[in-house]
Task: structure prediction
Amino acid sequence: MPPAAPPPSQPGPAPDPAPDPARAPLDAGRVQAALLAPAGPLARCAVVARAGSTSTDLLALLAADPAWADGGLLVAEHQDAGRGRAGHTWTTPPGAALTLSLAVRPGAPRDRWGWLPLLTGLGVVRAVRATGLDAGLKWPNDVLVPAPGGADLPGWGRDRKAVGILAEVAPAGDAVVLGIGVNVGQTPDELPVPSAISLRAAGAAGVDREALLVAVVREVCGVLDRWRAAGGDAAAAGLAAEVTAACRTVGATVRATLPGGAELRGLAERIAPDGALVVRDAAGTRHPLLAGDVRHVRPVGELGSAV
Result:
């Protein structure tokens, strides 16, 4: 008789999935070497594994040691209680985004601080454009990139939000914390809402988060240095024109939702010297809107059309 066939082998445990190189952790030493003085623009820099909100944590560091206000950066690999405008929350999968907060002393009259979110956004736009994406500003504090395929989304058109920015004045009143969140490597099913997008989902695959972090910080600090040198006069610094050129909101017909729920529709004509958005309604009346005066500003079609 032929020998009996050996029993079938039993499958062993499945191997652990290989780590995703696109979500490799940031190297704190390299980040600090690139960004701390004298090589970089910062006085302090910390990279942590987790934070509820980098801005909340940086405000606490400022309260304990005001020296953090002189160019202090806090970066978290994972943020699970991030904060946006109007009480919105923002969370990120570990290793998929950049979540950072930068503390600065504006060094300019307080009535010009309304430019800070826009100037921060301009720096981020420059860093994101270096990845090959057509990034632009949405007044007052978002950075947009086009969705692949040109699909329209009501209230957004072809653009989607890739970056959120939140500027908060520290309790002492002499420093501002600039919170920046960049969707870098999230897949579409990891994004919270249809209006959000990551750089990866927009077509910039393989973005190095570490290189992008360094670029974002350097660009933002460079823009703010120009603004301070002009005493906070964005026009004299040439920055008002650069912000306007990068801003998708200016020249669009928009719907502004005010805190009480009322709406203003009109043409977003320009950005005023204090950073306000000037909207001309159907009757020709011009309304200057400061960031704190609105909950949302969304593009619409023709003036007065439904969304």
Summary: The chain has two domains: 21-245, 249-299. Residues 169 and 198 are 28 Å apart (CA to CA).
